[in-house]
Amino acid sequence: MKVTDHIKKAQGETLFSFEIIPPVKGRNIQELYNNIDPLMEFKPPFIDVTTSREEYIYIDREGLLDKKLTRMRPGTVGICASIKHKYDVDTVPHVLCGGFTKEETEYLLVDCHYLGIDNVMALRGDAMREEQYFEATKGGHPYAKSLVKQIQDLNAGKYLHEVVETDDCADFCIGVAGYPEKHLEAPSLKTDLKRLKEKVDAGADYVVTQMFFDNKKYFEFVNAAKAMGIEVPIIPGIKPLAIQRHLQLLPQVFRIDLPQDLIEAVDDCKNNKEVRQVGIEWAIQQSKELKDAGVPVLHYYSMGKSDNIKAIAKAVF
Questions:
Q1: CATH number of the domain residue 170 falls in
Q2: Containing H/E element for 208?
Q3: Which candidate in 19, 131, 181, 220 is catalytic?
Q4: Is residue 230 part of a domain?
Q5: Cβ atoms within 10 Å, residue 218
Q6: How far is CA 236 from CA 82, 179, 198, 213, 286, in A?
Q7: Residue 243 above 70 pLDDT?
């Protein structure tokens, strides 16, 4: 079922969903199941599975370093199929511009269609570690807007090199990212909202926001988006703080602001166990306010760990 259909079916009730990352190559998928199992009691209608782009590794060849391009966390579509089969829940694979040609994207989408996956999250993706700025893959998409268009074309039976007359077209529900505090590369929030409007006009069906820690910024973002004519559901993305170093890492990596009350609460912690508890309590407070405001879904960035997400969900749902 499509994410948007789940939202309609809920008739105003706030749904619970979360996002996981594939395990590193060589790790057992059971570790992933062990972190999903505790969250299933909250009946998530869908689970997102991230996609990692390629990165360079260096292999020692008898004293010489051999530079190789690889993916450390492959298996997104396989994990989606496995979760769908094991838990009977819809899955949302993330589809990236970065690291994929348009042909590779088409093959991935065909696989998803065959597996009965109804939803995809269309993302530009990050720059590689060696890049100062994002550079499009040769033969790939430079922006999420054009990726959304390719998916919509496929929904209409328009493949890259031909139009296929068929009664079995894909019908993907397309999610895209939104940034309450603007994308780190955007010159202004207004410009970033224009880019979001372009993605919606290209065919995006819903938006999931980047993490934020001040609900006021989410509400302002939603109001600004609506004023610009964006009418699709905007799902808030929530990430609980877990370690003291998040105070430096999150603003640096995602260009977000942390509320002073949260900073001071973390500074008062003696260890990361206490920080984790502060993160849980802050996310509970955020979640309850958002739920009271009638958000369609509360979407949690679990990063593969479920104990703190379970504690939050238990207090909210």
A1: 3.20.20.220
A2: strand 206-209
A3: 19
A4: yes
A5: 24
A6: 26, 10, 20, 11, 10
A7: yes
Read off the pLDDT of residues 259-297 as tens digits, 9 standing for 90 and up: 999 999 999 999 999 999 999 999 999 999 999 999 999
pLDDT digits (tens, 9 = 90+) for 74-120: 889 999 999 999 999 999 999 999 989 999 999 999 999 999 999 99
Residues recorded for the chain: 317
Maximum distance among all Cα pairs of the chain, rounded to whole angstroms: 64
**Residue 264 in domain:** no
Tell me the average pLDDT across 198-217. Answer: 98
Q: Which of 202, 185, 183, 198 is nearest to 228 (CA)?
A: 198
275 belongs to a structural domain: no
CB of 221 closer than 8 Å to CB of 178: yes
**The domain containing residue 66 runs over which residues?**
3-240+296-303
Alpha carbon 140 to its chain centroid, in Å, reads: 20
Letter for the amino acid at 203?
A: G
pTM of this structure: 0.93
pLDDT digit string, tens, across residues 222-232: 999 999 999 99
User: Is 256 contained in some domain?
Assistant: no
Annotated catalytic, 131?
no
The total domain count for the chain is 1
Residues forming beta bridges with residue 59, ordered by sequence position: 66
Is 80 exceeded by the pLDDT of residue 130? no
